[in-house]
Amino acid sequence: MEYIYAAMLLHKAGKKVDEEGIKKVLEAAGVNVDDAKVKSVVASLEGVDIDAVIKEAMSASAPVQTASPEETKEKPKEEKKEEEEEKSEEEAAAGLGALFG
Question: Does one domain contain both 9 and 56?
């Protein structure tokens, strides 16, 4: 992962993503650099529009819309109404019981 991060950092800084740049970034971070991995990353990024890939990844991983705050506020009110209806039914039953008592 650190090899990809190094490439993304170079890209974001407006630098050319090449073997030398990736090595410098990784060495500055204290990573033991594997030349084969550096070459592999550079080769796999040749001809790739990094900005387009990042944009595509961001749109693909857009968060799922959850309930709005208004919807979450309405639910407790509905629960309270149900509880009040249950209480009123219980009170009515108790009152009728007293009539036949």
Answer: yes
